[in-house]
Amino acid sequence: MEEVMSVLIGIALSATCGFRVFVPLLAVNIGTRAQNADGEPLIELAAGFDWLSSDIAMMVFLVATLFEIGGYYIPWIDNLLDTVASPAAIVAGTVITASFITGMDPWLQWLLGLIAGGSAAGAVQATTVVTRASSTVTTGGLGNPIVASVETSGAFLGSALAILAAPFAIAVFVLLLGCGGWIWWRRRRHKLAEAA
After folding, report:
1. CA gap 109, 103 in Å, rounded
2. Is residue 32 within 8 Å of residue 43, measured between CB atoms?
3. In angstroms, what is the C-alpha Rg of the chain?
4. Where are the alpha helices (DSSP H) in the chain?
5. Which residues, other chains included, contact 138 with Cβ-Cβ below 8 Å and sequence gap of 6+?
6. 27, 135, 171, 177: least CB-packed within 10 angstroms?
């Protein structure tokens, strides 16, 4: 059961990569440093992923997080960031999930990381891209800072929930995907109605 919880944490953290790429990576670093009541780390990583908990990784993730968050508040740069963030989110999601999978051959560990973590991050990222594009079209980019604030909050809250309450974080992820799918379906239906 402990291994299943570990994988759930990895998938939940990967999903938050769809909001902001570096916030979950920073959360992983902090989670490996924080200790529970028994004096053990909140999260433990698979062998070979110790670099995620290093001091250098913490500094890189912190600086990258600040730049990423700041960039989303600059109109039109936020859409450019989405272009770069989409593949980066999939890579980060794959790395995070793979870092939580233990007791498997490395090729299977990475494959499961890609299937579970990469796809979760990609699905959330696709939802944020659609939301941001809708905001840009309907508000001329003026509503994008609000969208950026919601996404940043989702990244921080999702990362905290993933580490502290992984099953709840997975439920929130599924709910967000459902909302994103509903928004896409409504837009698609509206465009088809306009075309007819």
Report:
1. 9
2. yes
3. 17
4. 2-16, 22-33, 55-71, 77-100, 106-112, 119-139, 144-164, 166-195
5. none
6. 171
For residue 117, what is the DSSP state? I
By three-state DSSP, how is residue 72 classified?
coil
**DSSP label of 46:** P
> Which residue in this structure is represented by tokens 């960031």?
81
pLDDT tens column, 19-72: 999 999 999 999 999 887 788 888 889 999 999 999 999 999 999 999 999 988
Q: Tell me which amino acid residue 148 is.
A: A
| Tokens 């995907």 belong to residue | 177
Query: C-alpha distances in angstroms, 105 versus 45, 48, 69, 123, 134?
Result: 15, 12, 36, 26, 43
Residue ranges per domain, the chain? Answer: 2-195
Please list the residues that pair with 35 across neighbouring strands: 41
For 10-27, the three-class secondary structure string (H helix, E strand, C coil) is HHHHHHHCCCCCHHHHHH
pTM: 0.81
Residues 117/11, Cβ–Cβ less than 8 Å: yes
Task: Pull the structure tokens for residue 196.
Answer: 């007819």
Which value, to the nearest 10 degrees, does the dihedral of the CA atoms of residues 101, 60, 165, 128 take?
Answer: -100
Give tens-digit pLDDT for 79-121.
788 788 889 999 999 999 999 998 889 999 999 999 999 999 9
CA-to-CA distance for 194 and 109, rounded, in angstroms? 47
